[in-house]
Amino acid sequence: MPTMHSRLFLPGLSLVACLCACGSQKPAQAPSVVNGADPYIARALNDPLMVDPDLSHRTDANAAITIGYDHALPSFNASEEAASRARATARLALLEEGPIPELPPAQAGPGPASLAKQYGVEQVLEGVGAPGACRAEIRSGFAYAATMPDTARVMPHGMVRVAARADLPECRLHLVRYQTPASKMDVLQHHYTLIARAGLEPKLFAAPEASITAGHSGAAWRIHAREASGSLTAVDVVMWTLN
Known about the structure:
Elements: H1 4-24, H2 39-46, H3 53-58, H4 80-95, H5 121-128, E1 139-140, E2 159-167, E3 171-180, H6 184-196, E4 203-205, E5 210-216, E6 219-228, E7 232-242
Antiparallel strand pairs: 1-2, 2-3, 3-7, 4-5, 5-6, 6-7
Helix pairs in contact: 4-6
């Protein structure tokens, strides 16, 4: 017959046995997620975060590692679906502000020189003939793409590659280079409409590369479009105003 001490001890043994049994079971492991389809996404999700790119870049005195963050992301190859989506989005945005004018025939004779081999900001400004007064203290930064005048705004679904601005007493200048899955004609339609709605008379050129020029009262617009790799369209937009 069990004693009082044995009756108290037996439940304790049962509890210990249960705890040991639970501890011997391995926790279920979550299935691993494979992001092999896109190497950039895989690297962003799986690489350890070594540094805060914003704070360390601005407070270099206290940062062990610094990373420059103001650079373009790799462009993705275009597809017919992406081109159609970019075109539809751009046309809807234009239609919200009024009817879309037809593109006129291209001007006879050659237009502005191609900017295909002009890589830096200074080279682009020289290629479009920007006044010297506009080139002093030019500053580059992706934030300037959001400050483009309405007559020179980036087409929807555009991937900005370079943006720059000069805000001087004698001149205000804006520059942006971007790529889009939309076709070259869609790009020309977008920028031609924006400039024409400002009451200007933009001129369209087909050679040596597709371009639009316009000017009025010390202001000038230069738009260039050409085929780029990955079935994309490369676009250069420069606008300046002399005070």
